[in-house]
Amino acid sequence: MQTPHRKLRPRNQTPNLLAVRRKHWPTLSSYGFKNALCLVFIQSADKERALEETKCYTTQSLASVAYLINTLANNVLQMLDIQASQLRRMESSVNHISQVSERENL
């Protein structure tokens, strides 16, 4: 059972997961990483530690996905800001052309 003061430390667990990947590389290529983690968990003598390492890896993966989504969202917002600025400049140019053509028609 996990105690309340115990915190996940993904950075400390990463070398263990890398060792798992290297040790079970044929398993990884044959069944995929998810299935390999399940296999490691089943074969592990220390189920709690294997579960904690799996939780840490999952936490790292989710954090990575969240970071990538945030980066993508920021890039989309920047692109939209640039496009809005370009549209304002185009609108200004069209208004200027319209005013010049109205003066010539008078």
Automatic annotation (TrEMBL):
Domain of life of the organism encoding this protein: Eukaryota
GO cellular component terms, semicolon-separated: actin-based cell projection; lamellipodium; SCAR complex
GO molecular function: SH3 domain binding; signaling adaptor activity
Gene Ontology process terms (BP): neuron migration
Family: Belongs to the ABI family.
This protein's name: t-SNARE coiled-coil homology domain-containing protein
Species this protein is from: Periophthalmus magnuspinnatus
